[in-house]
Each structure stands twice: as C-alpha cells, then as structure tokens.
Amino acid sequence: MGFEFLHNYDRVFGEKLMPEKETSVYVTGLALINNYICTNQTDKVKSTTEAITNFGVEPHPAWEFFHKNEPCDVFGKNWNGENLDGKSIEIFCDHGMGDTVQMFRYIKKLKIKYNVKIVLNSLQSQPLQRLCDQLTFIDVFSKHHVKCDYHTNIMQLPEFYHGRRAWRDVLNSEISIPQQPMLEALTRTTCEGKKFGFGLKFKSATGTELFQKKSIRPQDFEIDCWNWASLEPNATWTDTVELGDVADLVSVMATLPTIVSVDTLTLHVAGSMGIPTIGLLCADADARWGKGTKTPWYPSVTLIRQEKRGEGWGRVLQTLEKQLRGD
Global pTM? Predict the structure, then answer.
C-alpha cells in the first residue's frame, strides 16, 4: 500500500487534516519522496509529489531537491549497508501492514547487529501502534518523519541481510531466512476461542485494486456446518470483543485453534504467532510466498493457491474444506 493516500488523509485516518498537522504530514511526505528517489520508485515519487502539493502549506527547504529528483540529506543519508553503531535509522513502511509484520525479523537482526536507534515510520501507524510499542527492537514507531542519520525502505532490509535483491533468489537459495519474532497476546480478551473451529479472514483491504482478486465470499464456501469466527473488523459473532487494532487481533487469534486467511495482514500475523494456518492465495500472488504449499517465512502456514488467473475460488475452497475435515 503506497502513500498515494496522503491526499486522502481523512479517509485513511478517519479524521480531517487539521492545520497544525499539515506541516508534519507534509514533511513526512517529502521524506517519503526522498526515500522513493533513493530507491528508484519513480511512480511513487510522482504520485506522492502530487498528493503533498495539494496541501498548500509553506514549501519545505528541501523541496528544490525533489524537483531536481535528487536525494536530500535533510532526512538522513540513504542507508547502503554502512556501519550503524551509535547512529539512528528511519525505516519507511510504504507497503501494507502485513509487509511490515513480515519484515520484523530483519528489523530485529539490524538491532542485534548494531547499537542503533531504529525509527519505524508508517503513515498508517495507529493499527500497529500498540503492537510495535511492545517490540524491544523498535525504539520509535511514528506516522510522522523523525530526523535520523540514515533512512531506508523496509522492503530493502532483506537485500542487506542476504545480499540479494530478488525474492526468488532468496527463496531458491540455500540461505536461511531469519526466524520471525513470535507475536503473543498483549491484551486481555473475552473471546471464547475454544468454541470455534477456526477464525476466518475473507476480505483483503477494501479500496485497493487487489481487493476483488484477493478476497473470497463466505457464501461461496459451504461452511454453514462449521462453527467459525469472523476476523473482519465488523465481526458480529460477539458483542463483547472488539478488533480495534492489531494488538486486539493478536489477542483474539491466540485463543483460536486454526486460522484461515486470504493474503492480508491476518495471514502474516497468524504465521508470526505460530498458529496452524491455511493461507488462500490468488494465482499471481506476491513472489515472496514462493510456489509451493509451504513457505519458509512461516512454518505453521499451509498455502492453497489458484492454479491460473481467472479460475475463481471453487477448487481452492474445496481443497480448504478437505483440509479442515482432515481428509
């Protein structure tokens, strides 16, 4: 998920962009553009530039650098693997929250290797705030730019760890992918998970172009005979449990015996918790999942995927039912 949402701030955060917030969000936008320039993401440079231009606030002194398409060290130098001992690094999360959770393993490795202050920056910080506040390898988690010595994009961290850029090179090699930090329940919940057969996440993030491709419809899945818990934000199976943010989601999922999820944040969280999980993938799912039924990222996850584009979910859901029955 990119930061084209900067110009739809009220839709993303559920609040209007007040004048006192404009400058900080504007500066965050400039920092993101700086990151995109350094990582050659020209499409995001353009869309984010258009977004922050609409704010109409006083231009930041670094603005001239962006018009020249040059990095500006106002936001710190682009990290190229230099020694970070005693330094600080701002890591931008310009993808979905699931990608951020998946990359926790590399942030932790960075923290262990160096005596470094780590600032994790995400405009959509609120859903992840309480979760990240509990992770000792993240010093600051913010939705605004924080001045640091260096900056990088979170999806570049595996390249520095493995020395390889392409995901297929990482998955097809003999190298070991670091173990994911284990996520555990952080809050108390009244969810009686033992009475459910499994938890189901059937929607990808609404509003994205991938929504229709990634999501399934429960009515297409003959699960009336199953006692399942919806893991959607507006779940109606209980009036006493709220899924307000990822910390709540983790706590509820910890009570469930099995998770079934499409390719979204829930799938990454379940894998990071070590819960028996079945992931449902579309035919052209992200290359990071590999091609088989298992994934080195999350040993507890089994994948069922469409074989070709446009085939629908019928065969996938039939296979899912068999696995749930233990056939």
Answer: 0.88
